[in-house]
Design a protein that fits this description.
Helix content of chain B: 55-70%
CATH class of chain A: Alpha Beta
Number of strands of chain B: 12
Largest sheet of chain A: 8 strands, mixed
Shape of chain B: rod-shaped
Oligomer: heterodimer
Number of helices of chain A: 6
CATH architecture of chain A: 3-Layer(aba) Sandwich
Distance between the termini of chain A: 48 Å
Radius of gyration of chain B: 61 Å
Largest interface: A-B, 24 and 19 residues
Distance between the termini of chain B: 57 Å
Number of domains of chain B: 3
CATH topology of the largest domain in chain B: Beta-Lactamase
Structural class of chain B: alpha+beta
Helix content of chain A: 25-40%
CATH architecture of the largest domain in chain B: 2-Layer Sandwich
Structural class of chain A: alpha/beta
Strand content of chain B: 15-25%
Number of strands of chain A: 10
Strand order of the largest sheet of chain A: 3-4-2-5-6-7-8-10
């Protein structure tokens, strides 16, 4: 099932030219799911080994059903995947990966500040998200989706990103103010 | 030369070499096979390890569809010259990146195949899953390496095997050549001794002994045999010497006797000759004067006187014949022999003609002479033989109504035996040995005239020719004379 879903997602990703928006959203959903494989949230010991691995979407959901389909029935170890949709930062509880929608671009600073030091992998496709203190930013590059990672932000939140993931991403820093 | 005729040394060496060669060959083959199998396994394991490392490194590249990174990861393969090609396929089976980056068509399979490793001709090909975590399959890695290493290993182990085989065979040959002597040397020594003993008849030789094994026992037995033969030969030689001595002694005695006999015979012949010769003169006088008396004084003598004188004459004439025969006998002994090829049939016909001429047809005797009878001998002497035997046949058939004399020949044990057979008076076999004695007669002169010297003469002639003569007879049924030459 999972393979089919991922296959379907990737297929649409490669059909990007014909249907850029739909396939792009699909691919991003798969990437969100894949991040779980390359990221460790500390402290691990405190966590229930069967606690669901929660992917949250803050703001308008651009993925529609894609993300739910992607994670349905999937596990990371013993942990099942789960998708939550939030409207306010205050609602966020027990979330591992948080996608911040473009609809929240204006409030990114406040959101990130609110999440300060919580072990949540923040992801967005908003402009300069990584530079502004987000952890992973989707960047469109010639019909491909590239990753931009702010390693310092992740480290500050005790989110350990695999060097493998770092290999395929562009590392940026938060400019010193 | 067939293997059967090879010298034992070569046979032993060949056997040893064959066995060690076979063992070495099998060992070498096992070694090479083991090398190849091990090397293929090692190579597979190495490729598997490399594939797993590559797969582990390329998870992120596949997860986030980063071709550049994938290419970079695969490009590291250039440090291993045996790696021919590689490719990363995404979940969908599409190629994300290849090695080399611009891989020519045919080098990379268009779609991933089931995971596994296999040798494809001169390539070792592997497909392995790229997965993050336990079951999170992200794609497939394809990798192919050449099998030059296997070929090199095969070549190297083959070379080693050949070198080892060669050295080991040389060593085996050297050892075999050195060790076969342990077995062949005693056998060769035995063979040499046996040859020496049989060709030179020298039984004093002895085979050297090399040990107490079966060959040692054989050598002992052989030497014992030689010893026994030597003893027996010595004994035989002694016996032979004694025999020779005895023969020499006997021969000497016999020669002496023969010389004595010959001398005695010679004297006797000379005596007989001179006596006969000297006896003839007075006999002629007696006969001659008796004839004068009968012719000139017949009137004065009267019947009784004339009859007496007639008897004197007959007796003296008979005595003259006797003396003639004795002279003939003596001459036969003294005359020199001239051997030549003689037509006996022709000679017999001449003799018969002469008999018929001298007897002037008083009786008709049928002579049957086999044609083509021939022999080696003195013609004068053999004529005497035929004359005597045929004349005897004529004489002793005198009382037969149908007298018949045959002269034939037969072969007995490879000897030519001449046969003169008549149907005359015959004789009693009890007196057969007396037939050939001088003056020995089985019939009275009144019955059959004769002097008793003829057959003695015949026997002498036959003896001088180195032949034998014997006779068979039945009274009143005839006699048969056999002789060889």
């Amino acid at each position: 099932m999972a393979l089919l879903k991922i296959a379907a997602a990737l297929m649409s990703a490669l059909l990007l030219v014909q249907s850029p928006r739909a396939s792009e959203r699909q691919l991003k959903a798969v990437f969100l799911f894949n991040f779980a494989q390359f990221v460790d949230w500390q402290p691990v010991a405190a966590q229930d080994p069967r606690a669901p691995l929660r992917i949250g979407i803050l703001g308008d959901d651009p993925f529609g059903a894609f993300l739910d389909e992607t994670v349905r029935g999937e596990h990371l170890g013993l942990r099942p995947f789960e998708v939550r949709r939030y409207h306010e930062v205050t609602e966020i509880e027990g979330c591992n990966i948080l996608f911040i929608s473009r609809s929240e671009s204006e409030r990114v600073g406040q959101i990130l500040a609110a999440l300060q030091n919580r072990p949540i992998l923040t992801v967005s496709d908003g402009d300069d998200f990584a530079k502004r203190g987000g952890m992973i930013q989707f960047v469109n590059d010639k019909n491909r989706i590239r990753l931009r990672i702010n390693l310092e932000a992740a480290q500050a939140a005790n989110v350990a990103i695999s060097s493998k993931l770092l290999r395929v991403a562009e590392i940026v820093r938060t400019p010193r103010r | 030369m067939s293997i059967r005729d090879w010298p034992i040394k070569r046979k032993l060496t060949a056997i040893l070499l064959l066995i060690s060669g076979l063992v070495l060959l099998l060992t070498s083959a096992a070694f090479v096979t083991y090398q190849i199998v091990t090397f293929r396994q090692t190579m597979r394991n190495n490729l598997a390890t490399r594939a797993r490392i590559l797969a582990a490194n390329s998870t992120a590249a596949l997860a986030f569809a980063n071709e550049a990174d994938a290419r970079e990861i695969l490009a590291a393969l250039k440090y291993d010259p045996h790696m021919l090609s590689a490719a990363l396929y995404d979940q969908d089976g599409r190629v994300l990146a290849t090695y080399p980056a611009a891989a020519p068509a045919g080098l990379i399979p268009a779609a991933p195949e089931p995971d596994g490793y296999r040798f494809e001709g001169a390539r070792l090909v592997a497909f392995t899953a790229v997965a993050q975590g336990e079951n999170q399959r992200l794609g497939t890695l394809f990798i192919a390496s050449d099998t030059k290493a296997v070929a090199d290993a095969l070549r190297l182990s083959g070379l080693i095997a050949i070198v080892v085989l060669g050295i080991a065979l040389l060593a085996a040959y050297a050892l075999a050549a050195a060790l076969q002597g342990r077995i062949s040397a005693p056998i060769l020594a035995l063979a040499e001794t046996a040859t020496a003993a049989s060709t030179r008849q020298d039984y004093s030789v002895r085979a050297p002994k090399f040990g107490e094994d079966e060959l040692g026992m054989l050598t002992d037995a052989f030497n014992q045999m030689l010893g026994r033969i030597e003893e027996q030969k010595k004994e035989l030689q002694q016996h032979a010497k004694i025999l020779e001595q005895r023969v020499a002694e006997r021969t000497g005695e016999l020669e002496k006797r023969a010389a004595e006999l010959q001398a005695a015979n010679g004297e006797l012949d000379a005596f007989a000759y001179s006596v006969s010769h000297d006896l003839r003169a007075p006999l002629r006088s007696i006969d001659g004067f008796s004839q004068v008396l009968l012719e000139d004084y017949a009137a004065q003598l009267g019947d009784a006187g004339r009859d007496s004188l007639q008897r004197v004459r007959a007796a003296s004439q008979r005595m003259a014949t006797l003396i003639d025969d004795l002279l003939k006998l003596a001459r036969v002994t003294r005359a020199e022999m001239r051997t030549e090829q003689i037509d006996l049939s022709g000679m017999a016909r001449e003799v018969v003609a002469e008999i018929e001429r001298t007897t002037t047809g008083e009786r008709q005797v049928e002579f049957v002479i086999a044609p083509g009878l021939e022999a080696q001998g003195d013609s004068r002497l053999l004529r005497v033989v035929l004359d005597n035997l045929l004349r005897n046949g004529w004489k002793y058939t005198g009382k037969r109504a149908q007298p018949r004399v045959e002269f034939t020949a037969q072969d007995e044990n490879g000897d030519r035996v001449f046969v003169i057979k008549d149907n005359g008076a015959g004789f009693d076999m009890r007196y057969a040995d007396k037939l050939f004695g001088v003056f020995q007669r089985l019939h009275s002169a009144a019955e059959f005239e004769g002097t008793g010297v003829g057959l003695a003469t015949v026997r002498r002639i036959i003896n001088r020719h180195g032949g034998r003569i014997w006779a068979e007879g039945v009274v009143d049924q005839g006699a048969t004379f056999y002789f060889t030459l």
